Amino acid sequence: MSIGLRIGYGEDIHALVDGRELWLGGVKIPFERGLDGHSDADALLHAVMDALLGALALDDIGKLFPNTDPAYRGISSMKLLEHVMRLVCARGRRVSNLDTVILCEHPKIGPHRAAMRASIASALGIDIDAVSIKAGTNEGFDAVGRGQAIQCKAIVLLEAV
Ligand code: MG
Q1: CB count, 10 Å around CB of 26?
Q2: CA angle in degrees (0–180, nearest 5) for 24-156-51
């Protein structure tokens, strides 16, 4: 028997490159490089969206918002998240809580954590206390550890309205 709870998981990785703004969690972060991608390449919001879609057992964001579609070129991932949240609401669900991890060598995430939590909480229509953002490094291993990319992971719980 269902108790109305649905769990979802998502992750994303984007390369850090010159000449791009860095957006994470809907917040513009001052840094000399930014994430490469078709949209604003906000890897944290992309992981959150895939977690939400996973909880609904829907397609991933690559299917929903193809990077071959010029409509999504340079688009704010917040706009895409608004669309995903409409799908959540349309299915009679709301977010219970969200837990995320950002893996990167630079920049430091701590000073931006509160702003990112507030931004995501607002987009999901939940209290800031229900949004967790943790950060870590990859200790020199792989592309993230060499400072060439930022990877984000998210897990979300949905409840019936
Ligand atoms: Mg992505």
Answers
A1: 21
A2: 65
C-alpha 50 – ligand 1 centre gap (Å): 9
Q: What is the CATH number of the domain that holds 11?
A: 3.30.1330.50
Domain span at residue 99 reads 5-160
**81, two tokens:** 């998240």
Query: For the segment 111-133, what is each residue's pLDDT rounded down to a tens digit?
Result: 999 999 999 999 999 999 999 99
The total domain count for the chain is 1
Residues 6+ apart with CB under 8 A from 56: 6, 8, 87, 88, 91, 93, 158
DSSP 55-68: HTT---HHHHS-TT
First to last CA, the chain: 17
- Token pair for 27: 């917040």
Residue 13 CA, ligand 1 centroid: distance in Å:
6
Q: Write down the pTM of the prediction.
A: 0.96
Q: Tell how far the Cα of 2 is from the centroid of ligand 1, in angstroms.
A: 32
